[in-house]
Amino acid sequence: MHPFLSFTGIDTSILYFFNSAISSPILDSMMQIITLGGTQIFWVLLCLTLYIFGGENEKEAAFIALTALVMGFFLSEFLKAVIARPRPYEVLSWVKHTTTVGGYSMPSGHTVAAFSGFLALYFKFGRLWLFMLFASLVGVSRVCLGLHYPSDVIAGALLGVLCALAALKVEERVKCFGLCNFERLE
Question: What stretches pass through the bilayer (predicted)?
Fold first, then answer.
């Protein structure tokens, strides 16, 4: 394992705080619901809804979000395979978790999806604070549920932001070259 990915005191201390110190059945249930905001199925359904029932802004937001999500998915899966960091509950006996998931921990795929998707919505609808709050809650939920370290979530957030910015550039190019006219797709 890479030295910078070893279990640092800060990483495990923050994990302990969110996963054990403030844990409660009500909070755990809320985190289970919040974490759904980082699932690919949530974003596919949301983007389809925006695209089918929305106007030009909604269609553009759906395009940016889906582009960012696809980029984020492949990049995060590649990085997980390269870094190969085990999930917290696999190596720390005190970590509470209600579910086991496959794959590696770094970066958090749910956080990548949440930040790339919610940032895409911000590009078209404004209210950065609201969308960043939703994305951040998804990241926190992953730590609370014992599925990721805080550093996994930070890496996922950064990757999600980068994917959203790249998807915005793709959308600008698509519009610039006239490859897709969102107004005519209604």
Answer: 33-54, 61-84, 104-123, 128-148, 154-170
Q: How far apart are CA 123 and CA 140, in angstroms?
A: 23
Which domain, by its residues, includes 84?
24-178
Quick check: 142 and 110 in contact, CB under 8 A?
Answer: yes
| Tokens (6 digits) for 66 | 């889906």
- Cis before residue 107, ω within 30 degrees of 0? yes
Q: Is residue 19 part of a domain?
A: no
Q: Within a domain: residue 65?
A: yes
Tallying the residues shown for the chain, one arrives at 186
pLDDT along the chain (186 residues), means of 10: 57 86 83 82 88 86 90 95 90 79 89 91 83 90 90 95 92 67 50
Query: Is 101 inside any structural domain?
Result: yes
- CATH number of 54's domain: 1.10.606.20
- Selection from 149, 67, 79, 139 nearest residue 110 by Cα: 139
User: Quick one: pLDDT at residue 2?
Assistant: 45
The predicted pLDDT at position 112 comes to 94
Our count of domains for the chain comes to 1
pTM score, two decimals?
0.83
